[in-house]
Amino acid sequence: MSAVCPFCSIASGKAQASIVYEDATVLVFMDLNPANFGHTLVVPREHWENIYEVPENVLADLFSVVKRVSSAAKKTVGAEGISILQLNGRAAGQTVTHFHIHIIPRFSGDAISKALGAMMEHHGLKNPEKSDLDEIAKKIRENL
Ligand SMILES: [Zn+2]
Q: What are 68-81's pLDDT values in tens digits?
């Protein structure tokens, strides 16, 4: 546990949060700066900085809860869709260095659709060569 980590503070009960779900491994609470109505964060109780550190069995527990909370949040706020966002490292936009998964209810034409849509539709590398894709796939395979 990190003394200055806001999510560890919530997990230990030292900081307040609007808790949605908790068990021995996983904690879910409302994001304090929600991107949309019903935006929750799913975190492991234990402090791991990013996806490279979280054990696979804990990730499985986290994503089981992500599935359940996504369905419940969608139903609760009448969302048309759910965006699930998970960022690793400053370059990716991670600001709190305690692994977390955003569950963001979405509505057609909502305020974040432009930003998130731009990210998903950006496709900055246009029409890559199949041989280049094969080469990167081979290198990633070798690092698995
Ligand atoms: Zn922490």
A: 999 999 999 999 99
